[in-house]
């Protein structure tokens, strides 16, 4: 085969195959996202939509205390969710990675199954559990531990639990994938050489699983930040997060530029996290 | 050493209970005959019978199914053609990232982006706009799955087929597609389940006259705990469980071929 001629015609053939699809994604994914984010420097139209002049007003408005508080609340709740997921997810992934192949597959499927069920139903399930008349309160009352129901629903606690529930599998899977690749001999060698179990975990398993841990943290943190359903249903609207703010600006206040400003904040946080993650995992790969 | 294993074992067991307790509660309450879903009256299938007469739920389900089927077909075709093309031209990182980005962008950002674009060009929101939005979203997943495999396929088999006189179409259907089958199946299952369950994008891109099932569920949940949701939740769980196990089986069979 003629190499240079072949590569030129295969380039053309490649564009022939992919161009229609790429145009579709350009029109219905790239353009919508980019144009919407750019609206953050425009002025709101009187009946929705956007007009000129260009302005940085929206960013100034966003630094108002009310809105800074929303951003801070979102970061705190999403961070709490990510850390709680890590505390549950890492030991679980570690446990699974040490099982036999057959049991690994069974448990991984068991972890994924809830994730593939409807996200609203999974959120609703916590309404059933955390309700004042719900199963947990009834159980505690029946065994005589409490006389008055504990108010769990419509608190930040409920929001964090609900989100941890939604995204825990996204923490376990990448950590498991990273741990599974760790050479078991390395762990054994470090134990044979007299490391304590904890030290071998700290010096061998955790550093090697770091790329997976970071991916897990991003996979949990990012959707938690943008989630507006859980704060509404389990937080009872008392916990306002960026997602709620964005939705209300677009659907209720119809102030697109201001809503776009917060969507931009969300996107920038995502980009920063991904670039940290890729830098760290590159470092780990070089060291390994 | 046993001490450490104990800790991770305990957490793992806790994680499984944490993941399954809420689901079990919903399934259990779905067999409650009481009209107050939190007060247990007796075991029965009353609400399973009642649910079929709830028009909003039945119609919502039909719409969701329609959207998911059309989305699966479209995203499979678009995602596969993009993957074949990118592989042929040995495309670099930019085009790959471009094609998989809709899966990484926060769903809320993609959703309002589409909402503003549709309304800028005075597109009426309907099931059509949901299908377009879901297709953009699911195509990214199909590309991710198909691209991962297509690079592993030996191009000399396709070349041999062409050299022996097979038409381009014949080579596509007899050589390329059969070799991609496992990832095409995975992409289809992924698109279908993603579209069936997807709420945020559908919420922003759907019109008010054609609520899909997640929208119906959302408006029901906002009024609190109802017996119908317990039944609906159980049925949806069943569908997902069967789907995941089915996909797992297909994956195994496909891998063994």
Structure description:
- The complex is a heterodimer of chains A (288) and B (257).
- Chain A contains twelve helices and two strands, in the order αββααααααααααα.
- Chain A is mainly α.
- A two-stranded antiparallel sheet of chain A has the order 1-2.
- In chain A, strand 1 (43-44) and strand 2 form a beta hairpin.
- Mean pLDDT of chain A is 87; it is low at 1-5.
- Chain B has 257 residues and is mainly α.
- Chain B contains eleven helices and no strands.
- Chain B has helices at 2-30, 46-50, 55-88, 93-104, 107-120, 127-150, 155-163, 168-197, 200-205, 213-221, 227-256.
- In chain B, helix 3 (55-88) packs across helix 10.
- The chains are: A mainly alpha (288), B mainly alpha (257).
- At the A-B interface, helix 1, helix 3, helix 4, helix 5 and helix 7 of A face helix 1, helix 3, helix 4, helix 5 and helix 6 of B.
How are the SSEs placed, and which strands pair?
The complex is a heterodimer of chains A (288) and B (257).
Chain A: H1 3-38, E1 43-44, E2 50-51, H2 57-62, H3 65-97, H4 101-115, H5 119-130, H6 135-142, H7 156-181, H8 184-192, H9 197-226, H10 229-233, H11 242-251, H12 256-287
Antiparallel strand pairs in A: 1-2
Helix pairs in contact in A: 3-7, 3-9, 4-7, 5-7, 7-9, 8-9, 9-12, 11-12
Chain B: H1 2-30, H2 46-50, H3 55-88, H4 93-104, H5 107-120, H6 127-150, H7 155-163, H8 168-197, H9 200-205, H10 213-221, H11 227-256
Helix pairs in contact in B: 1-11, 3-6, 3-8, 3-10, 4-6, 6-8, 7-8, 8-11
Largest sheet of chain B: none
What fraction of residues of chain B sit in β-strands? under 5%
How many helices of chain B does DSSP assign?
Answer: 11
Helical fraction of chain A equals: over 70%
Number of extended strands of chain A: 2
The major sheet of chain A is characterized as: 2 strands, antiparallel
How far apart lie the N and C ends of chain A? 39 Å
Alpha-carbon Rg of chain B, integer: 22 Å
What is the oligomer described by this structure?
A: heterodimer
Order of helices and strands of chain A: HEEHHHHHHHHHHH
The Cα radius of gyration of chain A reads 24 Å
Strand content of chain A: under 5%
